[in-house]
Amino acid sequence: MEANLPEIEICDTIFQFDIDNLVLIEKKDPYNLLFFNEMLDHLTHYEFFYSKINKNTPTERRLGPADDIFNESEKSKEEFAQSTVKVSVPRIAEIDPEGMMRKYGCSRDDIKNKTDFDIIVNQDVLRRRVSGERVKIDIAGIVYEIDAITNSLRPLNGDMDSIKLTEYRYDYFIDDESCYYLYCNMNDGRIVDLLRDQTVENSIEFKVPDLTNLDPIAVINNFHFLTDLELYYQDLKMFHIAEPSQQQINGNALLNSDFTVKNPDLKTLILISENDPDFTLKEYRNYIIASSNESRLLDKDLTVIFEKNNKPENAQVIIPASKQSTNNIEQGINEAMKHIDILVDNPNIISNSSVLSNALSINQYLELYHSQGKLEAKKLLPKNEKSAIENPQKGTRPKF
Q1: Euclidean distance between CA atoms 373 and 51, whole angstroms
Q2: What are phi and psi of 351, to 5 degrees?
Q3: N or C end: fewer C-beta atoms under 10 angstroms in the chain?
Q4: Quick one: average pLDDT of 323-350?
């Protein structure tokens, strides 16, 4: 820990106070943390039950590798109970007044005359929310009111559907991040379930916090499983803007020459399902080659490659070097196999005379052929360059 952090002593143990994270940290064990939302605020000080054995609250009991809480002797249970005492902690403003002024922009008079709660918690948001004003969130330009009782997002535009967050929790909620990854159909602005509806051409994934982070005041007032001090750790807002993280393009949309992408700057994933009637899938050297079916009346041929275990994050589109080859599906597959050979055997080779095509990343392809202001593709095509393959983060989004 930093040597200049303020220190307090609790039952002969030194804790340092971190104003930025609002936490007490045991000086000799930086993994042992005491948070203020586990304490009772008496305005002039805080109180909580503290275990001298645990050096934490009794509910945060830490066991050693040989300990078994289910098979403890009555003696050890009694010793643990006897080690628990009620302790008090000074006001945060008393522990670190300089830190309070720096972080919250308060004055010395504020520290003298206001409580920690008054300084730390945004009182304007608290007043507006308690008076009945609803918190709102913007998702792709559509504004929703947050209904904490039903855990829903209700659109201000009556033509849109409400979003019942509980329906998306199993497939689209990431516990470690306490947020949903919801997909918005960019054609009509509606939230869609892509696991069950893959007809959507272009969708954007938005990161939507859970109810505790969107409207913590309502959670505290209505459900009572959080204390007021939980607000110390929340960035209280009356209006949120959902953050876009990536967009998904349906494989069929790429076959449509008139299809345009509204958000070319976002990381883009292409979705081609195993049973897609417009594509045939071929496995080659731990890659999948997806080629458009010749029997379908499509605007153009398309060959896409992606790593078998990472689809669709690493997709690349095979672009023939000459216009005469654009209608030769078999040539597209052969060229795809050559690119895969280079990726597997000689990943550092930039060009290869045997390759008669280019492999573009999805975003490069969209910029050239499906952007709103379409560029002149033939001038910008790279000379047999191998596109960099990104390493996607695993386990952070729903599996397709």
Answers
A1: 66
A2: -135, 160
A3: C
A4: 76
- Which helix (H) or strand (E) covers residue 76, if one does? helix 74-82
User: Tokens representing 131?
Assistant: 């008076």
Q: Which helix (H) or strand (E) holds 205?
A: strand 202-209
**What is the structure's pLDDT at 352?**
60
Residue 261 backbone phi and psi in degrees, to 5? -100, 130
Transcribe 22-44 into DSSP letters: TEEEESS-TT-EEEGGGSEE-SS
| Residue 249 bridge partners (DSSP) | 202, 270
Distance CA 300, CA 259 (A): 12
Helix (H) or strand (E) holding 316: strand 316-320
The residue among 96 and 386 whose pLDDT is bigger is: 96
- Minimal CA–CA distance to 61: which of 41, 46, 79, 36? 79
- Dihedral through CA 289, CA 300, CA 271, CA 311, nearest 10? 20
Cβ neighbors of 166 (< 8 A, separation 6 or more) are 151
Helix (H) / strand (E) containing 142: strand 142-147
**Tens-digit pLDDT profile for residues 48-83:** 999 998 899 987 655 554 455 545 556 566 777 788
Mean pLDDT of 106-118: 96
CA–CA distance, 34 with 27 (Å, rounded to integer): 12
pTM equals 0.78
